[in-house]
Write a structure and sequence with these properties.
The protein has 137 residues and is mainly α. The chain has six helices and no strands.
């Protein structure tokens, strides 16, 4: 004889899965709020630090510590160090910097992160423009 399933027998496994996933969820609403607050605080601190550095660069033409560090690094004549510096800075030059940004944005869209890809695209487009604007001013 064939058993028929009633809604009660179907609901029990579904409820168990939902309850299990709620118990094992990595972040509750309070944890998410704390993480968001921590992120916003760190962004605010970084923006403040950038603003202070910008103010110092504009008001003080040459900082002695900056000059000392720059001269110290430029006085190193070791070819291994020169190769290391070239290797480290390679990704920051054109065209590879634009290619790397494009690949990351495309991968974000492919993996379904639409808003992250959109934000990445906007940042990748705005930052070079701000860089150009800063150099013109």
């Amino acid at each position: 004889m064939k058993k028929t399933t009633t809604p009660e027998t179907i609901d029990k496994p579904q409820k168990a899965v939902v309850e299990s996933s709620q118990e094992h969820s990595s972040s509750s609403a309070g944890v998410q709020r704390r993480k968001a607050l921590l992120f916003q605080l760190s962004v605010g601190i970084m923006l403040a630090a950038f603003g202070i550095l910008t103010f110092l660069v504009v008001t003080v033409p040459v900082l002695s510590i900056d000059l000392s560090i720059t001269q110290g690094l430029q006085s190193i004549t070791n070819p291994i160090f020169a190769g290391l510096m070239t290797y480290i800075s390679w990704a920051g030059f054109s065209p590879q910097s634009f290619i790397i940004c494009a690949v990351i944005v495309i991968l974000l869209f492919i993996f379904g992160y639409f808003w992250e890809g959109t934000a990445g695209f906007l940042i990748a487009a705005i930052v070079p423009l701000l860089n150009l604007l800063a150099k013109v001013i």
